[in-house]
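Sequence in, structure out. Go.
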Amino acid sequence: MINTKKARLMTQCAIYEKHDGTDDLKIAKFFRADYIRLEVLKTIIGITVGYLFLLIMIIIYYLEFLIKNALQLNYKMLFMRALAYYILLIAAYVVFAVGRYSYLYMKSHKRLGRYYRMLGKIKKIAEEQEYEKELEEENWEEMQS
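Output:
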């Protein structure tokens, strides 16, 4: 006979595994600090690549001006300004990334905890069904003899 509670739990587990489970299991492989550190590193790399691309585009846009005034420009000041903008951008994104990935990690672990509790309930129901089945078999054997 089908246990409806077990079937319901198994359905909920399957839905979780299909939607959030794969991502949550990948996140669960890491400690919290390691996960956040990895994601912040990815963010820094992405921001750096984007910033360099933007900087190159700005240089190309102002190339004629740069060539005409090549001897009169204060390159140290331009470099310091570009570096200051880069540091400010990185700082802002790192703060945002730490907050975001901390939140995602906590949400992931909450969902995983709920998932593991459902698996525990399924296991308990399966053990109870197995015990009941063994009792029925023993009773059947006693009735036969």
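Check: The two ends are 26 Å apart (CA to CA). The longest helix spans residues 75-144.
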